[in-house]
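Design job #97: recover the sequence.
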């Protein structure tokens, strides 16, 4: 039976893990796309940043 709690709430993941993962994804995106201006990447959808960071390769 599902409790309705997230993995963080169930303490399966450290409390700040999502923030850390998000930071790492963006850090990789910024390193791989140095020509993208701040004005541009602040308007990008999160999924596009995720795809262009190639961070998902770490999980495959």
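Job complete. Output follows.
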């Amino acid at each position: 039976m599902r409790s309705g709690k997230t993995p963080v709430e169930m303490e399966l993941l450290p409390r700040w893990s999502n923030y850390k993962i998000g930071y790492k994804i963006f850090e990789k995106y910024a390193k791989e796309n140095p020509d993208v201006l701040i004005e541009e990447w602040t308007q990008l959808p999160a999924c596009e940043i995720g795809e262009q960071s190639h961070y998902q390769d770490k999980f495959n």
